[in-house]
Amino acid sequence: MLEQVEFHGGELDSAMYPPLRDSGDKHSPNSLFHEDLPASPIPSEGGDMEPAGLCAPPIPGLFFVPSLLLPLELADKITEFCLKHYFNRPGVNQIMLFGAASDSTPWSGLPPILLELLASMSVLLQPSLPPEIHALLFPRTPAHARQAILNLYHPGEGIIPHVDLLKRFGIVGLSLGSSCVMQFARVDEVDSTVCPKHIFLPERTMIVLPGDARYAWIHGIEKRTTDLVADADTFRIVERGVRLSITFRWLLPSEDVVGLEA
């Protein structure tokens, strides 16, 4: 079981450092873009790579703008910080952080660099999101604790298709260091021959998954070292590198304690 990791005055509490885990598909019951609930594999034709588009497929609640990128300087600073402070031991590939539910607590729970990231994402995403979704993701006065999940993926690793937890909401994810292809399929079509939707997530892009995109669709990432991307009238092979995934989501009361899922 993963342990809670918190920041106290900017110092990492080593006594609460997560245990080492083997590489491969991520198996955490508390992480987004990682299998939260058991799900059937997304069907694929003949086991061959399906081309991924550069634009978001027509999935209700899915918000993705491929040209909207986190500034390179900030992306590099965040990557360097995370690799130095969290992924500095062999085999460590997931870190979970919990923020405070309000400003009244004596500690923020999240390191300043992640708070800077949230502020930047809020500004970047505001023009592209409906006001109610933006207010859910970036409320002026937080009413719930925020969870940050950091995952490090090497080429060939993937995410088992899953439906996200019901007690987590306000999801926004960021890819750093490498691109990947995420695939979606309706929950009621996972056992059919209907092909899933594929979306290419370039490095430094953000994806938002509220509503049906989270609960009526499963999402995952196949274990591959390359991805096939449809670009205009051509196709190209894109090699995967080491990818740092950062996911933020709000928690309902008591959900900042790992392992309490019903």
From TrEMBL:
GO terms for cellular component: mitochondrial matrix. Residues 1-46 are annotated as: Disordered. InterPro entries: AlkB-like, AlkB-like_sf, ALKBH7-like, Oxoglu/Fe-dep_dioxygenase_dom. Residues 1-11, 22-37 have a biased composition (Basic and acidic residues). It holds the Pfam family 2OG-FeII_Oxy_2. One of its GO terms (biological process) is fatty acid metabolic process. It comes from the Eukaryota. Signal peptide: none annotated. PROSITE patterns: FE2OG_OXY. Residues 141-252 form the Fe2OG dioxygenase domain. This is Fe2OG dioxygenase domain-containing protein.
